[in-house]
Amino acid sequence: MHHTRVALRQTEIPDLERFFQFQLDQEAIYLAAFTPKDPNNKEAYLEKYTRHLGDPTINMQTILLGETIVGSIAKFVMEGDTEITYWIDKNFWGKGIATEALKSFLTIENSRPIFGRVAFDNIGSQRVLEKCGFLRTGKDKGFANARQAEIEEYIYKLM
User: How confident is the model at residue 50, as a pLDDT?
Assistant: First the structure.
């Protein structure tokens, strides 16, 4: 499914309010797995992401469908690796929006290689990465706050 109305723009502080609401959804938290210890702490969330907006190593974009904010996508650097992260409002899952947004993002963010990490059972996100040319190159284990357990995550790479 192709959405010609999916657009990206630089994230602004007021967008963080919507992003915070998206990440309160229990099913979304479970699938994302690697979330803050307390996703309900709005003050900590807003402080962290406001700081990220001022970080020149982070490219944070807001995903729009028409005029509606439907998600976020960002590039960041962790332990020397460039990584990608995205979050789509659960009301918009399964419509191809994440795939289209990631394809667009990869045209403006040209850091390579770029990595994506995804919980072993988050099939939707694995498909998004694969449709955008990422290859699964490995796996790791990490503590997932959302599940209060160590789980396996798959590592994807785009050259």
Answer: 95
